[in-house]
Specification:
Layout (H helix, E strand, L loop, with lengths): L11 H17 L4 H11 L1 H12 L2 H9 L5 H4 L10 H11 L16 H12 L1 H8 L5 H15 L2 H13 L2 H21 L16 H7 L11
């Protein structure tokens, strides 16, 4: 499948300018998904290249690169009809309870090749699947913890920058909770699980959620301390 986007070729100095502007803008307003996406693309090429090479060495990873599935409503809508115990149903519940749409992700614009553009798109689109697998909320603590996992999995500079930006916005209680409970868990969880970018999630939607967690070495998030 072709990734439909208006790809923007950038010179090195332009990449640096976009990265700096996006970083500043994202720190000012962390809700700007477009700025966070631009920062990830302009600083993440080496990381995406490493992810691509890992995917090529995996059977499921190669299938993903060949078939280029998309986590969009047209292709994952059947998850809403699956039995309650399944991974797909858990994902549908996660999305529906928050009124999220799989189609809300901003397009990739700054990758140099179609292959890297697809890898970047895939990384962006599986974000909510990872939320589901790890049982993480979408509040500031949950998003920051997932960024730690994403960094351990992909080594994207943007992920660690997002964590730093998130911790700056924590109040004292949140910061203590994150550093004591969520950060060490996220480091361990990101390192222990399988290569999550090489998992063809759509093929496993009908499987039991707890079974796929065990199969992929997923450690669910710690319970919110009282």
């Amino acid at each position: 499948m072709i990734i439909e986007r208006a790809r923007v070729p950038l010179r090195l100095w332009q990449q640096a300018a976009v990265a700096m502007g996006s970083a500043i803008g994202a720190l000012v307003d962390p809700r700007r998904a477009d700025l966070i996406a631009a920062l990830g693309e302009t600083t993440g090429k080496p990381a995406f290249e490493m992810v691509l090479e890992r995917m090529k060495k995996s059977e499921e990873g190669r299938a993903i690169l060949l078939e280029r599935p998309r986590v969009v409503s047209e292709q994952v809508g059947h998850a809403w009809d699956l039995p309650d115990n399944t991974f797909g149903a858990a994902y549908a519940k996660f999305m529906g309870s928050r009124n999220f749409s799989p189609d809300d992700r901003p397009p990739v614009r700054f990758m140099e090749t179609d292959e890297l553009a697809y890898v970047a798109t895939r990384a962006r689109e599986v974000h909510d699947l990872w939320h589901t697998l790890f049982g993480l909320p979408t509040n500031l603590i949950g998003e920051s913890a997932l960024k730690v996992i994403e960094f351990e999995q992909m080594y994207l500079p943007m992920c660690m920058l997002s964590v730093i930006g998130g911790t700056v916005r924590f109040n004292e209680k949140q910061r203590s909770m994150f550093l004591k409970h969520y950060f060490p868990w996220a480091v361990r969880a990101g390192r222990q699980c399988t290569d999550l970018m090489s998992v063809y999630y759509e093929r496993h939607f009908s499987e039991d959620l707890e079974q796929v967690r065990r199969k992929w070495g997923i450690i669910p998030a710690p319970q919110h301390p009282k």
